[in-house]
Amino acid sequence: MSAILVGPLAVAGIAAALALVIAGLDRVLNNYGVLTIRINGGKMELSVKGGSPLLSTLAAEGIFVPSACGGRGSCGACKCKVLSDVGPHLPTETPYLSPEEMARNVRLACQVKVKKNLDIELPEELFRVRKFAARVERIRDLTYDIKEVLFALEGQGIEFDPGQYIQLVVPPYDKVPESVQRAYSMSSRPSDPHHVELLIRLVPGGIATTYVHKHLKEGDSAELVGPFGDFGVRDTPATMLCVAGGSGMAPFKSILYHMQETGAYPEKEIWYFFGARTTKDMFYLEELRELSASWPRFHFVPALSEPRPDEGWQGETGLITDVLDRYIRERIDPHRGFEGYLCGSPGMINACVAVMQKNGIGEDNIYYDKFA
Amino acid sequence: MKDTIQHKEAEARMRTGAITAQGFLGDDPRPVAEIVEADEGEFRRLGLVFEIVAAELERLRDAGEGGLGEPVTVDGKWLVQTGDARGRLPCPYGDGIHHKNSIWVRRVDSGEALVYSDLSIHLLKEHHFLQGRGSGFRLEPHAIKRVLGL
Question: Across the interface, which of A70, A180, A204 has its CB nearest the CB of B104?
């Protein structure tokens, strides 16, 4: 019996000894000590412990570069310029970078390890980004698959521009073993800095949306990171053509109520086209009709693509792009020029851009945040 | 059957947290080679052909994209909705990178639905891998037959 055990025990002993040697070598070889990250030509300098990815190293210092995949290298959002030589671009980075970005030393912060002192460039607005502790104050069903979630921020409030987005930190749950972050446009108003409202549509198989729809409850704690993004109203007299569907409503709700509340951009006429399939998919209808009735420069055009005969729908019908095309050609005064503001799927954005360009609106005057 | 070494290498990348937080295997304890072999057998028994199923899933996706993010009725039989997320996902077998999306196809008559992505179509067509049981994007052969009506 003991002779039978000698072989396996010897193998196990050798494996354990090798593991100890590897662990020891790892501790020596991968000990990069304390390093310096110099940001934007020395405007900020961080002393950090080396050896971790740049993304998490910056986050540990309170600088949050946007990331939708938690540093797995699959979203391509955490781009930043690394001026120091950190070797060639990795195969995990190249699918997300254009040749121009690669030539300018743009890297994915999650794929660059901090092994030496680094000189990097980050957009100044990222210094405004913070992590907020929050509590879920209210969850409301807007449709069968869209929830309005209101978070009360604990401590300091948030300063943001209407149209910006925030990342919701989803904790591990069910079969999801690790925390992930997902980006959602804020539908709340900047005038209430102690609340953040998000509109979240259930995506079948989606980690974050399933968490919000099936697990998150009023009173739960949550974490939010933001604000991010540059989607917002341009200061010109041009008429705004806003187009959205589903949860793409969120940034426009924030923008519209902010403009109405503050009287911002008083010269602008605003046309808001909102598409849904049936009345079951439509929401905020009464609220926006009331806003339109009380605010002369705001025009709300809801449209259904597949209205059922029993719904008694009196509004516009057809794909929102067809309705938009018809209004630009026949209904809206063109003399101030147009600006396009879009929020939705890449397919919807591409289709709207095509309609706008066909009607003479240059791509430079069309603004969107395409999640693709 | 494919070389099991190729499946084994892919299996490591299919685990939770490697390419996606949830992984591709759900709570299926079987090795990937065994999952593929079992599903190939099920396809044969049901008279399904991988290339034809993939083509139909692609056709429904393309038709669903016409809804511009909203659900759309296709051929009077299916309600299809497509959603997009930021980023791309590499195939665990290392042969391509796919746009991160989610396609939902529901039969109007029975209400039975399939959920898949561009990567699911590629895995089905090129690797005969329908994901492990319990995975959110698992495509059950019987459900494919009923929902697509093949």
Answer: A204
The minimum CA-CA distance between A355 and chain B, rounded to whole Å, is 13
- What is the dihedral angle through the alpha carbons of B30, B31, B36, B39, rounded to the nearest 10 degrees? -10
Whether residue A206 and residue B26 make contact (CB cut-off 8 A), yes or no, is no
Which amino acid, A237? P
**Could you give the number of structural domains in chain B?**
1
Residue pLDDT, tens place only, B59-99: 999 999 989 888 999 999 999 999 887 777 889 998 888 88
Token pair in block for residue B54: 């993939």
Taking the model in full, what pTM does it have? 0.85
| Residue range of the domain that includes B130 | 4-148
Domains of chain A with CATH codes: 34-126 (3.10.20.30), 129-228 (2.40.30.10), 239-368 (3.40.50.80)
Quote ipTM for the complex.
0.82
Cβ of B86 within 8 Å of Cβ of A77? The answer is yes
H/E stretch holding A206 reads: none
Residue B5 in contact with partner chain A when CB distance is under 8 A: no
Q: For residue B124, which phi and psi values (nearest 5 degrees)? A: -70, -50
Contact B68 A76 (CB under 8 A): no
How confident is the model over B9-46, as pLDDT tens digits? Answer: 889 889 887 788 788 999 999 999 999 999 999 999 99
Partner-chain contact A96 B86, CB within 8 Å: no
